[in-house]
């Protein structure tokens, strides 16, 4: 793209230097050439005052040559008779071979061979003498060299003006190529260019490459193609960017489209083309471009006919040509034989925000942190779609206040910007009517659902869901994830809702899809049930009023898809019906999904035969029909239906694939008829309490892959096709490589194994072991580990076909018992697709070495086992990010797992080090660890020295350890956000915590005497409950409030032992609320917030602890701050940090809740107050604590000095502080609960 000059940083003064013999050419070719160059905008040096005096060229000429990109050397009859010309040529050729100038020779009235051989007028007879001999030799060499460079010979041209025009055009084109193109302002463009450059394969000059650029509307395909064209097309003799091909074709015809293409590619005016009034066909394109190397972009193609009109065959274009097609339709590219397709995806969050800020704010940066926070919310609306980001950015640029921004956000949350919807609706308008119907059904029912589920439900003979979904995916209206789930962009989903709303206005009696809660409510309330609606989706959480369906007539038998759901369990259902109501229960239903279905059984008249799926989560049903006559039923999900006692005979449900009764606590038996269901692949009967008495045996069947037999209390339920199983009870697993008892077993299978594995499987010889270490592992197993089946397994390597393709395995005992029999795990290599492996409380003594074969493993939980070490081969698991090894009481050491991001080692009482370091050169940056739990790991040696190894740590739990001071290396963790020190009974001081720390938990540190927070600290949650040696430390309270980083619209909380509200606070009152009037001078100075205190007293025999979930708040119209306290209460007998004699003192100790609240208050309020409430769970028959008193002080801004002072009598005048205005309140609560649970 850029010049190949080594002086890439050189600042060029001239584009072209003209070297010529004045007496031959000044008044003819040079004058014409100079004029044409200047008219074309080429900066040219021409020596008009040429006086050839002296023996060498002037300094001005020398500098001009060095400052030029090109040298045009006009070799005329008397050129060699001028020493100056020859010296210029010598310098030019020297720079040419240094690649610092490009040379174009022009042979004007001379024979190039005379120049090459120095004959004719280029002889050197006049240059005699020893003093000039060396120069003559160099001149001869320079003339020979320039004659060998391709140039222009005027002897061969018929039209001198035309040749001059060609020379200038060639120079101009090359100058354009040499100019660097700046794409820095287009976010993400460089990445696209790098990826597309490799697809273009410009070095391959023998083939014609056709490349498709594919993506949803508004994603930036045209912009990318334009940048690609500008960057790579200039070296091509012919190039063309044909914009909006679909519109040209729609407004004209194929012949006009071809004319437009040819005229653009050849740089001809359409009216001057010889065939301007003639119908032209594809043969004209082939004739014009068949031997010509072209770079062409056909933009926005939406019909295969358009491609066939312009580029049906690659041989229509010369070797080395590149044809780019942009489209929303991948199927079009496939049909046209375009095999190389570049998919354009939405911008990631960071790039989207950068682009939004460039458009929304002058200078590209928000003017304050408040605008920065709200701009994050605004850019999120676009979900990375560039066209939407542009529309929203330009719209918000007009907003002049935060109130306007907030109003606009509320509007766009409900419906997309008009311009965005118009772009996205183009794809919908281009669909066939049947595919439009599928699109609306997918948006209403299946966004985020498995593709297979949607396909099965929509294939009803009318919708043709399989074909429709394929078309929607090809046209970028939906995406399919690697796991096989449908993903619809949120703006497309909003567009679908808008389309449905428009339809309801345009044809209220023919709405195909209903999902707006208000419209459904009005429809059912008005009893307008004759309307032929095909699909209804009702989110009950969005219902404002309750609706009783009793008394309504039967719903019209067009309803095929009924989805009534809710996301919040605590919200009571507002939709009611009686046992004889069948309004919504159409006999044509294919999908019946109804959360908290209120009836105990279906109405007797409801006998649907077309049902494909029944999903009744947390229903009130006791019996699900006595028998099922539903041959089409594929999925039956009754999970959480706690009153369900019986399932029907399922022998007639021959197509049943999934049966789920998870959490049906009263279910008494599983019908034996499921043995005959050959299509059944998923069975979930876990957490069914009545089934726990069953003795369940899990065995592998020989002769095939993934064949599992279940035996319920001696009755064999054999399911050869099962791929997903979840079962609880008295389970005995008798698989070839796993043997032992468990309380819970779960395995699941993805629809498709990872591509990398499939490739590896194809290359594996069937007559060899799949992993060569697997046989070696078997020999290392102790004799008592090897029952007879195991010894047989040693003797016969297993072919790949017998591998299980589970992606998840859970084998769990609910409690750890050191005396339980050890679960035997002989090998894991037969589960190569595993992403998650949970073997919990199984007393496993050895993890086999072949664990390294689990190359896709991301997460493991091996808590409650008896191994002392783990295989070194675990460091060969590249995707492993999370490991939980809690309560592995014999574990002494870990291998060097540098790839882990989170590890839980709670209760590993024998652990001596976190990771074993295998080499002397310790590069701590190798470790990726972000979160570390080592609570109750008292045997770890030199814990204070270890944290420097893990520089990326953001969460550390050191609870229940025996150190007296905080490990010094903690202070060097510059990303640490959360530190847990709960129940560190010997801890006496906390000092030198990192400035970045936000959450500090030190509950129950009974020896803690001092705590020091750094100036401008970031702590927003500090729990020092039950740290009784602190007593009531008012200095610490002041330090927490006044020495922290104060951000506008923020809250900080702390919890200290204390018996009364400190005098630090102005207003103090008994009780849990306090309100005061604001002074008459308000709003000057401005009120910025308050410091508050609430005193809470525990009642015997309860203790209290504050977690991130211990409080909630609300700014009640800015006049009140409401605080809802929900601390954790527990009995003294559950606590381990007090002896009996200390118990009385402990439980009587009161606590203080300290608050700093900052807010941008409205100047219209005239009073302010604080109100608090104590909440506790229903298990307490009487309150475990009470709120005794409260107090607060207001915080004011001094308009004169821009400082903040406390309005109270006791505070000294020198306590003023400058405050920083930064963080908005709406993000704080989200942050407060995002740090995860703290240590116990």
From TrEMBL:
Record-linked Gene3D superfamilies: Helical domain of apoptotic protease-activating factors (1.10.8.430), P-loop containing nucleotide triphosphate hydrolases (3.40.50.300), Ribonuclease Inhibitor (3.80.10.10), Toll/interleukin-1 receptor homology (TIR) domain (3.40.50.10140)
Reaction(s) catalysed (UniProt annotation): NAD(+) + H2O = ADP-D-ribose + nicotinamide + H(+)
Name of this protein: ADP-ribosyl cyclase/cyclic ADP-ribose hydrolase
Gene: LOC104751140
Domain of life (superkingdom): Eukaryota
Enzyme class: hydrolase
Enzyme nomenclature, EC number: 3.2.2.6
Domain (TIR): residue spans on this chain: 12-175
SUPFAM superfamilies: L domain-like, P-loop containing nucleoside triphosphate hydrolases, Toll/Interleukin receptor TIR domain
Keywords: Hydrolase, Leucine-rich repeat, NAD, Repeat
Native source species: Camelina sativa
């Amino acid at each position: 793209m850029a010049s190949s000059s080594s002086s890439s940083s050189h600042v060029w003064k001239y584009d072209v230097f003209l070297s010529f013999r004045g007496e031959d050419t000044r008044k003819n070719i040079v004058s014409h050439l100079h004029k044409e160059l200047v008219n074309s905008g080429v900066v040219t040096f021409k020596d008009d005052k040429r006086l050839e005096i002296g023996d060498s060229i002037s300094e001005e000429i020398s500098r001009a040559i060095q400052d030029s990109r090109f040298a045009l050397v006009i070799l005329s009859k008397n050129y060699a008779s001028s020493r100056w010309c020859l010296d210029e040529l010598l310098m030019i050729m020297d720079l040419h071979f240094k690649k610092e100038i490009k040379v174009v020779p022009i042979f004007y009235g001379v024979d190039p061979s005379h120049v090459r051989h120095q004959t004719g007028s280029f002889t050197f007879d006049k240059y005699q003498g020893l003093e000039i001999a060396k120069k003559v030799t160099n001149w001869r060499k320079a003339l020979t060299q320039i004659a060998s460079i391709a140039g222009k010979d005027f002897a061969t041209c018929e039209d001198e003006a035309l040749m001059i025009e060609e020379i200038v055009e060639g120079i101009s084109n090359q100058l354009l190529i040499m100019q660097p193109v700046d794409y820095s302002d287009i976010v993400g463009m460089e990445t696209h260019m790098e990826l597309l450059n490799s697809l273009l394969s410009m070095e391959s000059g023998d083939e014609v490459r056709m490349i498709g650029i594919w993506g949803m509307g508004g994603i930036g395909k045209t912009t990318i193609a334009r940048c690609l064209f500008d960057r790579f097309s200039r070296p091509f003799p012919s190039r063309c960017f044909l914009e909006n091909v679909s519109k040209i074709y729609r407004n004209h015809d194929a012949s006009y489209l071809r004319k437009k293409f040819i005229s653009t590619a050849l740089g001809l005016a359409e009216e001057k083309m010889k065939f301007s009034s003639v119908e032209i066909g594809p043969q004209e394109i082939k004739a014009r471009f068949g031997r010509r190397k072209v770079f062409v972009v056909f933009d926005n193609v939406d019909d295969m006919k358009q491609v066939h009109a312009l580029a049906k065959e690659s041989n229509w274009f010369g070797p080395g040509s590149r044809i780019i097609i942009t489209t929303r339709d991948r199927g079009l590219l496939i049909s046209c034989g375009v095999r190389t397709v570049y998919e354009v995806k939405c911008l990631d969050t960071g790039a989207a925000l950068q682009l939004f800020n460039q458009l929304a704010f002058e200078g590209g940066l928000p003017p304050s942190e408040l605008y920065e926070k709200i701009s994050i919310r605004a850019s999120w609306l676009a979900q990375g779609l560039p066209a939407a980001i542009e529309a929203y950015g330009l719209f918000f640029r007009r907003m002049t206040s935060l109130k306007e921004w907030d109003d606009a956000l509320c509007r766009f949350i409900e419906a997309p910007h008009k311009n965005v919807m118009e772009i996205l609706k183009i794809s919908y308008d281009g669909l066939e009517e049947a595919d439009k119907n599928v699109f609306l059904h997918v948006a209403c029912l299946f966004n985020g659902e498995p593709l297979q589920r949607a396909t099965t439900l929509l294939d009803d003979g009318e919708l043709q869901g399989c074909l429709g979904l394929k078309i929607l995916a090809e046209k970028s209206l939906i995406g399919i994830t690697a796991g096989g789930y449908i993903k619809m962009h949120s703006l497309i989903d909003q567009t679908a809702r808008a389309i449905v709303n428009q339809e309801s206005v345009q044809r209220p009696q023919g709405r195909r899809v209903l999902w707006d809660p208000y419209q459904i409510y009005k429809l059912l309330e008005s009893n307008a049930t004759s309307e032929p609606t095909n699909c209804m989706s009702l989110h009950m959480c969005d219902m404002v009023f309750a609706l009783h369906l009793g008394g309504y007539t039967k719903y019209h038998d067009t309803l095929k898809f009924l989805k009534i759901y809710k996301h919040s369990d605590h919200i009571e259902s507002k939709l009611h019906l009686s046992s004889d109501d069948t309004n919504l229960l159409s006999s044509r239903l294919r999908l019946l999904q109804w959360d908290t279905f209120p009836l105990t059984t279906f109405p007797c008249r409801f006998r649907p035969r077309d049902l494909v799926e029944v999903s009744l989560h947390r229903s009130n049903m006791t019996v699900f029909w006595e028998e099922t006559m539903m041959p089409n039923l594929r999925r039956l999900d009754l999970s959480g239906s706690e009153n369900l006692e019986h399932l029907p005979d399922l022998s007639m449900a021959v197509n049943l694939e999934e049966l789920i009764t998870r959490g049906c606590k009263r279910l008494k038996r599983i019908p034996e008829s499921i043995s005959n269901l050959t299509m059944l692949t998923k069975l979930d009967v876990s957490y069914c309490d009545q089934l726990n008495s069953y003795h369940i045996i899990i065995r592998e069947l020989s002769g095939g892959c993934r064949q599992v037999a279940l035996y319920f209390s001696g009755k064999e339920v054999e399911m050869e096709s099962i791929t997903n199983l979840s079962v609880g009870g008295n389970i005995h697993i008798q698989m070839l490589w796993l043997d032992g008892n468990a309380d819970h077993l779960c395995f699941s299978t993805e629809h498709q194994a990872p591509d990398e594995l499939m490739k590896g499987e194809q290359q594996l010889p069937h007559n060899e072991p799949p992993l060569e270490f697997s046989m070696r592992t078997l020999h290392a197993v102790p004799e008592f580990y090897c029952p007879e089946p195991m010894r047989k397994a040693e003797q016969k390597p297993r072919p790949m076909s017998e591998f299980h393709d589970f992606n998840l395995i859970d084998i769990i005992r609910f409690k750890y018992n050191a005396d339980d029999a050890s679960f035997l795990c002989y090998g894991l290599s037969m589960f190569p697709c595993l992403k998650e492996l949970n073997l919990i409380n199984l007393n496993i003594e050895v993890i086999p070495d072949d664990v390294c074969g689990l190359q896709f493993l991301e997460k493991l939980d091996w808590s409650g086992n008896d191994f002392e070490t783990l295989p070194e081969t675990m460091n060969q698991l590249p995707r492993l990010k999370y490991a939980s090894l809690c309560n592995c009481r014999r574990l002494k050491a870990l291998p060097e797992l540098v790839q882990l991001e989170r590890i839980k080692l709670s209760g590993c009482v024998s652990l001596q080090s976190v990771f074993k370091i295998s080499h002397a050169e310790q590069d701590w940056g190798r470790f990726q660890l972000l979160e570390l739990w080592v609570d109750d790991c008292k045997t770890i040696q030199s814990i204070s020295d270890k944290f420097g190894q893990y520089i990326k740590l953001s969460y550390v739990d050191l609870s229940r350890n025996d150190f007296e001071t905080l490990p010094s290396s903690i202070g060097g963790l510059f990303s640490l956000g959360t530190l847990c020190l709960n129940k560190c009974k010997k801890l006496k001081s906390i000092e030198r915590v990192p400035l970045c720390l936000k959450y500090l938990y030190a509950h129950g540190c009974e020896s803690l005497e001092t705590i020091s927070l750094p100036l401008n600290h970031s702590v927003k949650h500090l729990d020092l409950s039950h740290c009784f040696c602190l007593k009531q430390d008012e200095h610490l309270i002041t330090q927490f409030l006044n020495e922290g980083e104060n951000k506008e619209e923020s809250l900080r909380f702390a919890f200290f032992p204390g018996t009364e509200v400190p005098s630090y606070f102005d207003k103090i009152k008994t009780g849990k609320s306090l309100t005061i009037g604001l002074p008459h001078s308000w709003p000057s100075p401005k009120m910025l917030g308050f410091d508050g205190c609430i005193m809470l007293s525990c009642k015997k025999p309860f203790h209290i602890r504050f977690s991130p979930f211990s409080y909630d708040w609300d700014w009640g119209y800015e006049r009140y701050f409401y605080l809802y306290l929900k601390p954790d209460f527990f009995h003294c007998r559950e606590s381990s940090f007090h002896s009996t004699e200390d118990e009385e003192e402990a439980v009587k100790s009161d606590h203080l809740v300290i608050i700093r609240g900052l807010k941008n208050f409205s100047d219209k309020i005239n009073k302010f107050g604080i109100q608090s409430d104590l909440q506790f769970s229903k298990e307490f028959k009487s309150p475990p604590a009470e709120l005794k008193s409260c107090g607060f002080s207001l915080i004011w801004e001094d308009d004169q000095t821009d400082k903040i002072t406390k309005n109270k009598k006791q505070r000294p005048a020198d306590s003023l502080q400058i405050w920083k205005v930064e963080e908005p309140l709406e993000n704080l609560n989200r942050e407060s609960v995002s740090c995860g649970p703290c240590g116990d």
